[in-house]
Amino acid sequence: MDLIVVMKGTSLLGEVDAVVARVNELGLKPYISRGEFRTIVGAIGERTVQIQQQLEQLPGVDEVMVISQPYKLASREFHEADTVFDVKGVRIGGGHVNIIAGPCAIESSDVLFSVGEAVKRAGASILRGGAYKPRTSPYSFQGLGREGLELLKEAGDVLNMPTITEVVDPRDVPVVCEFADILQIGARNMQNYNLLLEVGKTGKPVFIKRGIAASINELLMSAEYVLSQGNHRVILCERGIRTFADEVRFTLDVSAIPVIQERSHLPVFIDPSHAAGKRDLVPSLALAGIAAGAQGAIVEVHSCPDRALCDGPQAVLPNNFVKLMQQIKEVAAIVGHRVTNGDPAQTAFDYSVFPA
Amino acid sequence: MDLIVVMKGTSLLGEVDAVVARVNELGLKPYISRGEFRTIVGAIGERTVQIQQQLEQLPGVDEVMVISQPYKLASREFHEADTVFDVKGVRIGGGHVNIIAGPCAIESSDVLFSVGEAVKRAGASILRGGAYKPRTSPYSFQGLGREGLELLKEAGDVLNMPTITEVVDPRDVPVVCEFADILQIGARNMQNYNLLLEVGKTGKPVFIKRGIAASINELLMSAEYVLSQGNHRVILCERGIRTFADEVRFTLDVSAIPVIQERSHLPVFIDPSHAAGKRDLVPSLALAGIAAGAQGAIVEVHSCPDRALCDGPQAVLPNNFVKLMQQIKEVAAIVGHRVTNGDPAQTAFDYSVFPA
Amino acid sequence: MDLIVVMKGTSLLGEVDAVVARVNELGLKPYISRGEFRTIVGAIGERTVQIQQQLEQLPGVDEVMVISQPYKLASREFHEADTVFDVKGVRIGGGHVNIIAGPCAIESSDVLFSVGEAVKRAGASILRGGAYKPRTSPYSFQGLGREGLELLKEAGDVLNMPTITEVVDPRDVPVVCEFADILQIGARNMQNYNLLLEVGKTGKPVFIKRGIAASINELLMSAEYVLSQGNHRVILCERGIRTFADEVRFTLDVSAIPVIQERSHLPVFIDPSHAAGKRDLVPSLALAGIAAGAQGAIVEVHSCPDRALCDGPQAVLPNNFVKLMQQIKEVAAIVGHRVTNGDPAQTAFDYSVFPA
Amino acid sequence: MDLIVVMKGTSLLGEVDAVVARVNELGLKPYISRGEFRTIVGAIGERTVQIQQQLEQLPGVDEVMVISQPYKLASREFHEADTVFDVKGVRIGGGHVNIIAGPCAIESSDVLFSVGEAVKRAGASILRGGAYKPRTSPYSFQGLGREGLELLKEAGDVLNMPTITEVVDPRDVPVVCEFADILQIGARNMQNYNLLLEVGKTGKPVFIKRGIAASINELLMSAEYVLSQGNHRVILCERGIRTFADEVRFTLDVSAIPVIQERSHLPVFIDPSHAAGKRDLVPSLALAGIAAGAQGAIVEVHSCPDRALCDGPQAVLPNNFVKLMQQIKEVAAIVGHRVTNGDPAQTAFDYSVFPA
Question: Which of B187, C179, C331, D59 is close enough to C149 for a disulfide, judged by CB 3.0 to 4.6 Å?
Answer without folding.
Answer: C179
